[in-house]
Amino acid sequence: MTAAGTTPGGGLSPEQLAKFNSDGYLIIPGALAPTTVSALLAETHKMLAEFPIETHPLTRFTTGGAAGDAAHVGDDYFLGSGDKIRFFFEEDAFDAAGALAKPKEKAINKIGHYLHGLSAPFAALLDDDAIRAAAAPVVSMVICKQPEIGGAVPPHQDSTFLYTSRPSAVGFWYALEDATLENGCLSFLPGSHRWAPVARRLVRTAAGAGTEMVDNDGPRFPEGDGYGEAGAPAGGARNDLYVPGEVRAGDLVLIHGNLLHKSERNTSQKGRIIYTFHVIEGQDREYDERNWLQPPKEGFTKLYV
């Protein structure tokens, strides 16, 4: 990662680290070289063109409603994707009769969840010294945000989906195409990682045949001073407090697991392809066995030992 403004050793500068700790997210311009962006986009388009739709269960990806209680995807194709590369359709890629209404390349919401283990171009990112400052990637995916049908993602926290005790998830979000207000860029609620608890969790059902949202009965904040619900602004998580994060292809966004963030629907003619993976602390953190995503037999990928 050759990010402008980072330290010579590849990590965050003191100023960047302070801003991340304050805001809960950090935009790093030019983190990926243009050649790397081109390689990852080429790999993405190759996968979209070559996956066999004839044998696909047509699983659609849904993030649920804004309240976090709506149904999430939870079939075997989804739950078994932790050590595979699988393809999930946009909800609006189908017509009223249930037939696919878009070419398959323009109908996929995301590709996941083991790109960092099975795709050489994506795995190569983990060889970066700056990324090795993190501990263990647990999930990686390409999110396409397709033209005209790219669905909105309601406010959420990544630790809701990748829970450790205590919360420790951090997202690495790489723009492979420009992400703008027009095509559904991310928006963030700065500082919300400090006062927004991980109150709900997405877990596998007791029977293991689906997923559900449940109350979090474990720690709701990371360790450290400055965390707690008492710091919430008047009115709580108001929509007018969200800040859009427009980025250019090659930029990186780091996202704290407790940070509230969202994205709007893409009704434009321009897609928005990104690559994201999440890491968790591998030491003194318990990855919950109820989480929807469970590690492969060999365990999660370790960036350092």
UniProtKB/TrEMBL annotation:
Keywords: Dioxygenase, Iron, Metal-binding, Oxidoreductase. Its cofactor is Fe cation. It holds the Pfam family PhyH. The keyword Nucleus does not apply. GO terms for molecular function: dioxygenase activity; metal ion binding. Belongs to the PhyH family. This is Phytanoyl-CoA dioxygenase family protein. It comes from Cordyceps militaris (strain CM01) (Caterpillar fungus).
